Structures are given as structure tokens and as C-alpha cells.
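Pilot study result, target chain (318 residues):
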Amino acid sequence: MPACDVSVIGLYILDVLGRPVQAIPAGGNVEFIDEIRLTVAGTAGGTAVDCAKLGLRTLAVGAVGADEKADFVIATLQKFGADTSLMQRLPGVPTSATILNVRPNGDRPALHQRGASDHFELTEAQVAQAVAAPFVHVGGTGLLAKLDGAPTVALMQAAKAAGRTTTYDLIAANSGTLALVRPVLPFVDWFIPSIEEAQAICGLTAPRDVAKFFRDLGARWVVLTMGGDGCLVAGEGVTLRLPAHDVVVSDTTGCGDAFSAGLIAGLHHGWDVEKAARFAGAAGALVATGLGSDAGIVDFAGTVHAMNTLPQRPIAEP
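Predicted structure:
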């Protein structure tokens, strides 16, 4: 039996979040807000924390600096039960971090410091360890300077050669991201971008056209997360349009990462595609109800309860 259920590889960030922020005070003035939190975030970090909270034995694979932010990231991952043996602490660079000023409507303009994640790379021996879990998730293409491109292709190729189920997400997408994504997709079982990121990459608008674009590039399944409009799941002759849960949104930070974790957890439990995607949607909805990428989700049972009881929003398009 493998030591972990899922390996979560890529972008690990410390988020500093405050809400509600109407505007940045002028000059040296001060305004008072209701809440400030520190969380482990990033397209890998947020997913790793949520996978662990959902009961998966989780291997965290990424890089932090040798600073006080790194101490928090490692300690928090360990608090939730993640294995941090493959987390690299790199001297001379800061831990990647973001300040998020969360608006009353849940929008989250960000100030990001690129750091250790840009220096993260894996040796051949580390790749073998990183792909030992049944599920291998790579998150953060776009902000992983040394891992983006050929190293990510080799990593996913190694995962598929080992018989793993691969999931894949990205960040900060634009039209130039296609060059990074295209060679990876033939080794991806589940590509899980937001609709905005996917549209920015391919230049198409309609969700079904966007999903087909990435399926044609080799992804086995494409899952487009669409916030309050739910998600679209396409692959292997199946197209599903699932609604979002109707919740009061506090902060949208990490909802996509939670969706990825929920999907992995559902597939881990052997559920069919529709049920796994519904569970993923519930995980994302729970995170939206609080501040930060680890908000809302308590455990697996609570998320199943949310999936079965939270009201659903009407689907805007068929």
C-alpha cells in the first residue's frame, strides 16, 4: 500500500488576507477591518491542505524559503497531517507570499511576491518519490519558473508511466500559457482550470468550445470551474453541466483549489464522475463562506453533508 493517497506538487504560498477592504487608506491613514488571517495557499498549497482535511494521506511537494513565512507554511501543513518530507527549504530566497485585500463582494485584488516557488525543481530521485501516490496533482503552472515547461512534462509523463491518475491546474494564465500547457495535456487525466483562465489561454468563449479545445490537445477530462455558474465536465463521451451551491460568499480565495481537492477525494473513493464533481463543488462552496483558502471545510463527512443539503443556484446556460 502506498504511503500517501495523493501527491500535491507545485506552488506553495503564504497568504495574508484581510476583509472587508473597501479601499486602501490614503496617505498614512488607518481603516479598521473585521478579520485578518494567515493561510497556506497556492494552486498546490491550498489543494494539499484541503486534501488533508478531507481525509486523504497527502504528500506536499514544493519549495519555501528559509524565513518566518516558511515556518508557518510547514507547521500548518503538518498540523493538518500532510507529509512535508519533500518540501524544500531554500536559503537566500523568500517564501512566495500574497497580500489579499478582500472586498465586501468577495473579490480579492492581490499583491504577490514571487519567491521560492520560482526556484523549485525536482531531481530524478525526487520525481520518483513524488509520483509514488495513486493520485498526482500538479498545480501552479505559470508561477513555477524552473518547473514549468519540459520539467513538468517529464514529471507528468513519469506519473502516467507509473500508472497514476494525474490532475492539473495552473495560475496567472494568459495567451502565452498555451505553450506551457500544450505539451503537458497528453499526460493529464483531469485538467481543472477556471473558465477565465481557460478562456485566456485558448481565446474561445463558450464553455463547451473551451473544453473541446483542451480535450483535442490530449486531456482525458476537462473540468471548467465557473464560480457561481457551477462547472462543466467533459470527457470520454460525457458532458455534464452542474450547478453551483447557493451560499453567502465571504471570499473566493482558494475555491478552485478546494474544488481540485474535492474532485481528487471523490475519485479516490471510487465515485462516478458526476458525484465526484458535485462533491468538488461543495468543497469549493464551503471555502467561499469564510476567509482564506482553508476556510469552510472541516472534514470529509461535513463536506458530504454540504453536498447533499446546500441549496443550488439555477444553471445560467444549458
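One observation from the pilot: The chain has one domain: 9-21+34-309. A full batch analysis is planned for the follow-on phase.
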